[in-house]
What does this fold into?
Amino acid sequence: MIVRAATDADAEALAAIYGHHVLHGFGTFEITPPDAAWMDGRRRDVQGRGLPYLVAEDAGRVLGFAYASPFRPRPGYRFTAEDSVYVAPDAVGQGVGRAVLAQVIADCEAFGLRQLVAVIGDSLNAASIGLHRALGFEPAGVGRSFGFKHGRWVDIVWMQKALNGGDACPPDGQGLSL
Ligand SMILES: CC(C)(COP(=O)(O)OP(=O)(O)OC[C@H]1O[C@@H](n2cnc3c(N)ncnc32)[C@H](O)[C@@H]1OP(=O)(O)O)[C@@H](O)C(=O)NCCC(=O)NCCS
It folds into this structure.
């Protein structure tokens, strides 16, 4: 398995993986799967900001992807990004999420960010909570019933990971252009 930057040629694979989790899971609060063009636009926006949008590929097949995007658009948030990670349903539990998210973390650190935030759909999302914990994220609170999907209220679980020393000292770069 290799981890590499996503390209426009990955758009259909990204849409298929994400679409499955939109339709069947609680990790994202989207209800209607976005098409490949929309996925590619998101990828270009992320990479255009200098942030990582990566895929894990094995034998020519995209098994999962992860990226970092601005947490919120206001400039005070310029040293914080939010991560997203999705793995094909038949490839979960095999180290794909760990491999691709670990590289996103490393790339965000190299960018000079100070906090990476996970906004995890569903308190019962043991896989995402476990993955983020395994990669050093700490609990940062729960938003109770912020979402309503598949006929029930759904929490969001906040987790965060300090990068480059976190808040131990002032930032030493420009951060994101917001
Ligand atoms: C969450 C997700 C990305 C994890 O990816 P994955 O490839 O299945 O995870 P990995 O196999 O790399 O597991 C890495 C670590 O995460 C933890 N983990 C993974 N699955 C877990 C589970 N079901 N329960 C508890 N911990 C789990 C473990 O610590 C694991 O390390 P280990 O294998 O050494 O025990 C994947 O399950 C997924 O796509 N889920 C649906 C979409 C989603 O919720 N995305 C996150 C949105 S915030």
Remarks:
- The CA atoms of residues 36 and 63 lie 16 Å apart.
- Residues 21, 25, 27, 85-87, 92-98, 118, 120-121, 125-128, 130-131, 134 surround coenzyme A (CB under 6 Å).
- The longest strand covers residues 138-149.
